């Protein structure tokens, strides 16, 4: 915990400094939501197709989902969502001809959530 998943449009691959973004979001999650640094995990998923409204061209999307163990206030979640959007603005360079649609969602992990770490 936290489990951070980032879906991003393929045309952003070279414009998105994913490692720097993850480091910043991890730091902000520790600061804002009292997460432990080694518990922060981020997974990036590149999506090939993006459609916004009726348009399949000229748009790119980045959506960040942060799953936290229950107990954070709505204010804390909102502050973290704003911090995630700030980090996106800092780590995704503009791409000519694309409108970037960025969003963030901070949610509670289900009570059934479990984590296992196995070293090989």
Automatic annotation (TrEMBL):
This is 5-carboxymethyl-2-hydroxymuconate Delta-isomerase. SUPFAM superfamilies: Tautomerase/MIF. The lineage of its organism: Bacteria, Bacillati, Actinomycetota, Actinomycetes, Kitasatosporales. It comes from the Bacteria. Transmembrane segments: none annotated. It comes from Streptomyces andamanensis. PANTHER family: 4-HYDROXYPHENYLACETATE CATABOLISM PROTEIN. Pfam families: CHMI. InterPro entries: 5-COMe_2-OHmuconate_Isoase, Tautomerase/MIF_sf.
């Amino acid at each position: 915990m936290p489990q951070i998943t980032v879906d991003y449009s393929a045309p952003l691959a070279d414009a998105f400094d994913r490692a720097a973004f993850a480091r910043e979001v991890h730091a902000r999650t520790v600061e804002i939501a009292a997460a432990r640094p080694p518990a922060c995990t981020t997974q990036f998923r590149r999506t090939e197709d993006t459609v916004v409204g009726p348009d399949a061209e000229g748009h790119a999307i980045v959506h960040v989902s942060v799953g936290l163990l229950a107990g954070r206030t709505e204010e804390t979640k909102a502050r973290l969502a704003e911090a995630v959007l700030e980090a996106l603005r800092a780590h995704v360079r503009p791409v000519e001809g694309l409108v970037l649609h960025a969003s963030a969602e901070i949610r509670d992990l289900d009570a059934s959530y479990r984590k296992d770490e196995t070293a090989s």
